Amino acid sequence: MSTDHSFLCEAIAEAEQGFAEGGVPIGAVLVEEGRVVARGHNRRVQQGDPIAHGEMDCLRQAGRRASYRGTTLYTTLSPCMMCAGTIVQFKIPRVVIGENRSFGGNEEFLRARGVEVLVLDDPRCLELMLRFQREKPAVWAEDIAE
Amino acid sequence: MSTDHSFLCEAIAEAEQGFAEGGVPIGAVLVEEGRVVARGHNRRVQQGDPIAHGEMDCLRQAGRRASYRGTTLYTTLSPCMMCAGTIVQFKIPRVVIGENRSFGGNEEFLRARGVEVLVLDDPRCLELMLRFQREKPAVWAEDIAE
Lengths: 146, 146
Description:
The structure is a homodimer. By secondary structure, chain A is α/β, with parallel strands linked by helices. Chain A contains seven helices and five strands; from the N terminus they run αββααβαβαβαα. The longest helix of chain A has 18 residues, at about 5-20. The interface of A and B includes residues 63 and 86 of A.
């Protein structure tokens, strides 16, 4: 298994924890110099917090930093416009995405602003999202403001 | 004083509270049907939270919503790429900005995605930001990842 797949597994573990909590099953980890420096998952349901997407929760857990140079953000699902804007604002240079079949569309926005984007098209990520979208369509619609 | 200026005053009060707390002096309020439904200010310093920009903190305080239709977000400073992405993602239809002289650049990003953007060019907002940028340049650089 590649290093990227290994770190994606850690993001999937976060997504699964969120699902077990009754939440939106999207997880993320921030990696720097070959180690995970922060983890997070969507907490909209758990904390009643609409900005707590998986990527945002992970960046909140990472705390204050002078720079994100040399970091990679792993996320189980393709970033929404909030999270994509944050990646650009924070100058995170590299993003690894579990899947972008159940939701996506901001990959080119990121690439056009110099972010390296890798989509792993992982079947576990897709299966978890499809199950969630099927079981809780109203929560999912709310999470993406549709 | 116009209604927009009145609501901007409420965002300025949030910014001033943040400054008094030793934080980044940027405030925001979310208005719906002529009344303030949520308030917030940048809490990077106070909570060690890099995603807690004024607009984000306000949207967090607003809690879960099915829709932002009919809302206006007032912010003392032009939204960064994180906050602009969030406005688009949440489909907030209207943004009123205190000033965009000390920081800006995402007005066209918002307008191109259908958001109505009004810049009031308020001297109190500009004065507060310039004072903060002069007194705490390192915190400001960190807040915009520069």
